[in-house]
Specification:
Shape: elongated
Number of strands: 13
Radius of gyration: 36 Å
Length: 265
């Protein structure tokens, strides 16, 4: 176009249009080369060498261009920012599924994760009554049927403030726990994904608890039978109905330590 313009065979306007188009294409080429270099750096340590070879190729040397672009693209070198074990993502609420051969991959897809196995993290559930007693930092012990004889010591990391429906419609809260350090011997027996039982020791002031069967319900009041000096007497008590176990109930008022309560057979 420049030669034609010098010979006055094309207009000045046409010449500058072609020159602008040329400059735009040159800028596009530079941008694409930068993008290619960034991609090659993720795939191979020889990225700079490959780019130098590409710069020496012409459009006529199609086979060489294809060969250079296909250099070891079947083997990708992925560098992790942290040490750990490679783990495949597990399907969850975000519909993340393990990667299979032939699956298309787009930007933002999770291909794999790196697990830091110097410790463990796990999720448990607590009902709406127990969750009020749980706080971040509380110590926990973790055991499991799959790893008998091993007790892991951890702590509560956080507790959800919003419940999700559990079995039978009872609201359940997620509780997240961490075990900061595990030994090599424990790692051989405790594997990722195993189920576990979590025990939390909740410290509370001393309280009086009696067997549930000892409680007598009359109208809106509750009584127990006390035994003293060989005789029995009915005493009114105030139970904390919200603080019960499978077979005991907390008594807030009406009894003192040492009282002998009659439990019917």
């Amino acid at each position: 176009t420049k030669a034609l313009y010098k010979l006055k065979l094309i207009s000045r306007n046409e010449y500058y249009q072609d020159k602008q188009s040329h400059d735009e294409l040159k800028l596009s080429l530079l941008q694409k080369k930068e993008a290619l270099l960034a991609t090659l750096k993720k795939a191979t340590p020889n990225a700079e060498e490959i780019m130098q070879k590409l710069d020496k190729l012409s459009l006529h040397d199609t086979k060489s261009v294809i060969a250079a672009l296909n250099h070891k693209l079947s083997e990708w070198r992925i560098v992790s920012p942290a040490q750990g074990k490679v783990l495949f993502p597990v399907g969850d609420k975000d519909n993340t599924t393990p990667l299979a051969s032939g699956d298309p991959v787009k930007k933002g897809d999770v291909l794999l994760t790196v697990g830091d196995l110097t410790g463990f993290s796990l999720k448990a559930e607590a009902n709406e009554v127990d969750v009020l007693e749980l706080k971040a930092g509380m110590p926990v012990t973790i055991t499991g049927a799959a790893f008998p004889g091993i007790t892991l010591n951890g702590k509560i990391k956080s507790v959800d403030v919003e419940a999700s429906p559990g079995d039978g419609g009872l609201p359940m809260f997620n509780v997240y726990l961490v075990v900061e350090k595990v030994t090599p011997a424990e790692l051989k027996k405790v594997l990722i994904g195993m189920s576990a039982q979590v025990n939390v020791e909740i410290k509370s002031p001393p309280q009086i608890r009696i067997p549930m069967k000892a409680l007598i319900h009359e109208g809106s009041s509750y009584f127990v039978m006390l035994k003293k000096d060989g005789s029995q007497s009915k005493v009114k008590v105030e139970p904390d109905i919200g603080s019960t176990s499978l077979d005991t109930v907390k008594i807030s008022k009406g009894l003192k330590a040492g009282d002998i309560v009659v439990v019917p057979h």
